[in-house]
Amino acid sequence: MIQVGDTLPDVTLMEYCETEGPGCSIGPNPVRVRQAAAGKTVALFAVPGAYTPTCSAKHLPGYLQRYDELRAAGVDEIWCVSVNDAFVMHAWGRDQGVGDKIRMLADGSADFAKATGLTLDLTARGLGLRSNRYSMLVVDGVVRTLNVEAPGAFEVSDADTLLAQARQLKAPA
Q: According to its UniProt record, which protein family does this protein belong to (predicted)?
């Protein structure tokens, strides 16, 4: 399992773009994780699935509510990662009203989840291999904090916990 001090895996996630721009066509676009995190402070949180109850009612909304505070604490970008396709992640983000505040990143084949060692096997519940619920603060591609939930729990990967950690990292030594 990925640990504090480790570099993010060099895998590709997918992100749906609604508007065409430099290097970004309409539709799913690849996001090279290491390249996208380089030189930034990223608040990354992962959920077992888009539209699932805890993810939709608490996890994602918490990060949206704390957006301004996370930015003030030095976070450049917020990433939401799930083992879903880019179309589902985009629709979920649209339904949750994230706009451009949270990057909705699809890990459709669970490559990121596998590379981090943070998988959750929900095959018995009809959901297949998913990502565990967790959050991490990443600085220039290196994991600085990691908060992994026990199966079925939502106690340590919330926005308030990561916000406190971001503030602590930003505080002068």
A: Belongs to the peroxiredoxin family. Prx5 subfamily.
